[in-house]
Amino acid sequence: MTGKSSRFPLPLSSVVEKKGTAASHVPSRSPEQSSAPVRKVVTPQTATRNAAQDSGRQAAKAQAAQFVQPVGKSASRATLPMPAAASTRAAPLVSEAVRKAMAVRVAKQGVSDPKVLAAMEAVPRHMFMEPALASQAYIDASLPIGHHQTISQPYIVARMIEIMRDNNKGKVLERVLEIGTGCGYQAAVLSLVAKEVYSIERIKPLHELAKTNLRPLRIANIRLHYGDGMLGLPQVAPFDGIILAAAGLEVPQALLEQMAIGGRLVAPVGGRQQMLQLIERIGKFEWTSETLEECHFVPLRPGTV
Ligand code: SAH
Questions:
Q1: Residue nearest to atom 2 of ligand 1 (CA)
Q2: How much distance in Å is there from the Cα of 229 to the middle of ligand 1?
Q3: Could you tell me if 255 and 242 are in contact, meaning their C-beta atoms sit under 8 angstroms apart?
Q4: Looking at residue 301, what DSSP letter applies?
Q5: Phi/psi-derived region of residue 297, left when phi > 0, alpha when psi is between -120 and 50, beta in every other case
Q6: Which residue has a Cα nearest atom 16 of ligand 1?
Q7: What residue owns the CA closest to ligand 1's atom 18?
Q8: Per the residue annotation, which of 5, 135, 142, 152 is the catalytic one?
Q9: Which residues line the pocket of ligand 1, CB cutoff 6 A?
Q10: Tens-digit pLDDT profile for residues 91-108
Q11: How far is the CA of 99 from the CAs of 9, 47, 75, 93, 205, in angstroms?
C-alpha cells in the first residue's frame, strides 16, 4: 500500500499513507513529551530507577563540580569520548551500569538495532540535565530542560533513530539533521550512528545550553545551529536522515525537499493526538509515508526566540 506521490513540490497531505503499519512488537506508547505543564517528578518504580536515584545523586554532585571546571585538556578525542569522560570525571559508579540497564529496558520495549542500543549505552544522559534532575536521568520519561521544553524519553529517542537507520539494515548514515536540539542529548546519540550531525534549535538559551552540555564531550561531528528548523538547512542538504523532535500538524515542505533520495525522515505529526510518521524519499519527485506508533512531543513552532 505504499503510496506514490504526485509531482514536486509536494504538500505532505498528498503523500499517500500506509496506515496501521506499526511494527507489532512495539508497544503502544503512552505520552512521551508534554506540551502541557512539564512533569517534575516521574514515577516508574523500577530497579533502574532505584539505582539511578542512588547513583544519580553522586552524578549530580560530580556533574555540578564538572561544570565549574574548565574543559580539561585530558578529555579524550576518540570517536567515543563520552563513556570514558563521563565515568571518570562525572560519575564513576553511576553511568555505566545504569545506562546499560536503560539500554536493556529500551531493547525490551522493542528497539532491536544494536548500533542504536550501543549509542544509548554510551551517551551520559545525566550530563544533559540540571544537577537537581540528574538522579532521574535514566528513567523512562521525558524531563524538563527549561523554557517549557523537555529532553525526550529514552525509548522514543532510540526508536526514532532506529527507524531512521532503516531497522538495522547496516547502512552507514552520512549526514543527518535534527530539528529541536533542546539540551543536545539526541544529537549526541545521533553522533554515534551518523558521520555528520546537524541540529537546529529555535530557542536561543537552549541552543546555548546544548553547546554547554556537548562541549565537555568533545564530539567532533555535531554542528549546532540556532534558527527555525522548519526551514531546514538548505546550504547543507541533502540529508540521509531527518528527525523532528517536535510535532507539527504536517512535516514542513522545506524538510521534504532537503531529503536525499533514499533518505528517511521521522517525525511526530499531530496536535493533541500525535503519531510517529516515517517518510521516505524514493525519487526526485516521489515520497512515501507510513504511520507508525502513537507519541507525544512538544509542538513544532515557527520562528526563533
Ligand atoms: N532533541 C531533544 C528534545 C528537545 S524537545 C532531546 O534530545 O531531548 C524539542 C525541541 O524542539 C525544543 O527545544 C523546541 O524549542 C524545539 N523546536 C520546536 N520547534 C522548532 C523549530 N521550528 N526549529 C527548531 N527547534 C524547534
A1: 182
A2: 8
A3: yes
A4: -
A5: beta
A6: 180
A7: 300
A8: 152
A9: 149-152, 179-183, 185-186, 200-203, 206, 228-230, 245-246, 298, 300-302
A10: 545 678 999 999 999 999
A11: 43, 12, 20, 11, 27
- 209 CA to middle of ligand 1, Å? 12
How far apart are the C-alpha atoms of 224 and 215, rounded to whole Å? 11
User: In 3-state terms, what secondary structure has residue 279?
Assistant: strand
Note the pLDDT tens digit of each residue in 172-223: 799 999 999 999 999 999 999 999 999 999 999 999 999 999 999 999 999 9
Write down the mean pLDDT value for the chain: 77
Query: What is the C-alpha to C-alpha distance for residues 63 and 82, in angstroms, rounded to an integer?
Result: 13
- The identity of residue 288, as a single letter, is T
Distance 201 CA to ligand 1 centre (A): 6
Helix H segments across 128-184? 154-164
Decide: pTM greater than 0.85.
no
Residue nearest to atom 4 of ligand 1 (CA): 182
Look up 135 and say whether it is catalytic: no
Helix (H, G, I), strand (E, B) or coil at 275: strand
Q: Which residues contact 134 (CB under 8 A, 6 or more apart)?
A: 56, 59, 60, 63, 126, 127
User: What CA–CA distance (Å, rounded) separates 207 from 227?
Assistant: 9
